[in-house]
Specification:
Elements (H helix, E strand, L loop, with lengths): L2 H4 L5 H6 L12 H12 L2 H15 L3 H25 L6 H6 L4 H14 L1 H21 L15 E4 L5 E3 L4 H16 L1 H26 L23 H12 L5 H6 L8 H30 L10 H9 L2 H35 L18 H17 L2 H29 L14 H15 L3 H25 L1 H5 L1
Antiparallel strand pairs: 1-2
Membrane topology: Multi-pass membrane protein
InterPro entries: AA/rel_permease1
GO molecular function, one term: amino acid transmembrane transporter activity
Length: 482
């Protein structure tokens, strides 16, 4: 098949006409959609990555890293709002790319989104396991360290110097399994649980800010930008940039909002509200939390799995530490829930186009959820979470997300020219300048990531290309129609 065939675009009119024939229940309003975004954004970023980014890369200037990442997301979020309102389907970036650059690039980005969603869920599940084990320890229950860590990693060092290595991370696999069952049971029920847990973690985050500000020692903010160690990404301005790339993982929630399009009551209105509102709220909270945390604890001491709990311990309010861990677990749980949900909806759309087997688009007649797809995704993610350390997963999620965001910004510019007459319920202001700025900031953050992360991305995309030419190309609905 000629390369021109591989670049065939899916017409916007066809995408829109397919929206009402999915079998999904339209049960999500603007508030639930906003909470889906907040539920996914506020999680690992605040409860885990803030501390490691400060300790290893930016110091107190991690607040600038979050501001920079939030600025990049603002430009991208405006582009997402236009596309999500124009094409309210569950395929997210995959669908937007199909309408602009054609099938081959759509498949590439659909495969890339696995890094953002499925691997993102595995990453957060590993962080969840750490807080869960710590909380149980506070109430007198101890999970053996080797059964809460990935194989080969240092799980614990005993007082006599004995090193215990991980065997399997059972709590991480367990939480993936439980949430997969919940998602199979129904979207409305999952959204209710998400809303409750979002309220809990917002209350805990705000409590930390309000209580912690009284214990800030301004000396801990000096120097605000520590001197570079001599290596790129280790403090100095390059460290601020590296930290921005690392914490960008925390901002993928507004992308997950777009995957709820086909279950939104009024997607043209509710999706832009959900995307932009969740982004603004969470960026402000990230900046505030990182400022308070680095003001309480010297940044060099924040490279731990539970940095906020460490900050609370320093205040002497040990009872509050338990509350923080409960809030962290709620926060991380909602992130996993949204990421697993988003991955199944993306697979649903790709399967409808014939690029994945039909079982990924089969909706249960009673539950009205893609149960087979959700079960497969949950099983694979649980295995990855049980066997893979968080450090290996984190950078891959970040670079995969940034790559997807670049294509979203490019899609807005392209569609403004190719389909100028199509009605747009929401229009990105300042086109092409806003999308170009989004692309620029995402590229800057990608460049700041380590070289081995780029190599893993290339290998991952090569595997995806092999799958496309062995299966997707032959079964493509659009290609076979042509």
């Amino acid at each position: 098949m000629a390369m021109t065939g591989l670049m065939t675009r899916k017409p916007i009119a066809e995408i829109i006409s397919d929206i009402e024939h999915t079998g999904f229940s339209k049960s999500l309003g603007a508030l639930s959609i906003t909470f889906i975004g907040i539920g996914c954004i506020i999680g690992a970023g605040i409860f885990v990555l803030t501390g490691t980014a400060a300790a290893n890369n930016a110091g107190p200037a991690v607040v600038l890293s979050f501001a920079l990442a939030g600025l990049a997301c603002a430009f991208v979020g405006l582009c997402y709002s236009e596309l999500a309102a124009l094409l309210p389907v569950s395929g997210s970036t995959y669908t937007y790319t199909y309408a602009t650059l054609g099938e081959l690039f759509a498949w590439i980005i659909g495969w890339d989104l696995i890094l953002e969603y499925a691997m993102g869920a595995a990453t957060v599940a590993v962080g969840w396991s750490g807080y869960f084990r710590s909380l149980l320890h506070n109430v007198g229950i101890d999970i053996p360290a080797q059964f809460a860590s990935a194989p080969g990693t240092v799980a614990e060092t005993l007082p006599d110097g004995t090193v215990i290595y991980g065997v399997v991370n059972l709590p991480a696999a367990a939480i993936i399994g439980l949430l997969t069952i919940l998602l199979i049971m129904g979207t409305k029920e999952s959204a209710r649980l998400n809303n409750i847990m979002v309220v809990v973690k917002l209350a805990v985050v705000l409590a930390f800010i309000l209580v912690g500000v009284r214990y800030i020692n301004a000396d801990n903010w000096q120097p605000f930008i520590p001197n570079n160690s001599g290596d790129f990404g280790e403090f100095g301005w390059s460290g601020v940039m590296r930290a921005a790339g690392v914490v960008f993982f925390a901002f993928i929630g507004f992308d997950a909002v777009s995957t709820a399009a086909q279950e939104a009551k009024n997607p043209q209105r509710d999706l832009p509200i959900g995307i932009l509102a969740s982004l603004i709220i969470c960026t402000l909270l990230y900046i505030a939390v990182s400022a308070v945390m680095t003001g309480i604890v010297p940044y060099s001491q924040l490279g731990v799995a539970d940095p906020i709990a460490k900050a609370v311990d320093i205040t002497g309010l040990t009872w509050f530490s338990i509350l923080i861990k409960v809030g962290a677990l709620a926060g991380l749980t909602t992130v996993i829930l949204v990421l697993l949900y988003g991955q199944s909806r993306i697979f649903f759309t790709i399967s409808k186009d014939g690029l994945l087997p039909p079982l990924f688009s089969q909706v249960h007649p009673t539950l009205r959820t893609p149960w087979k797809s959700q079960l497969i995704i949950g099983s694979v993610v649980a295995i990855v979470a049980a066997l893979t350390p968080i450090e290996t997963l984190g950078h891959m999620v970040a670079i995969g997300t940034l790559f997807a965001f670049i294509l979203v910004c490019g899609a807005v510019i392209y569609l403004r020219k190719s389909d100028a007459d199509v009605a747009r319920p929401f229009r990105t202001p300042g086109v092409p300048f806003v999308p170009v700025l989004g692309i620029f900031f995402c590229l800057v953050l990608m460049v700041s990531l380590p070289l081995d992360t780029w190599l893993r991305l290339i290998i991952w995309l090569a595997i995806g290309m092999a799958i496309y030419f062995l299966y997707g190309r032959r079964h493509s609905v659009l290609m076979n129609r042509a």
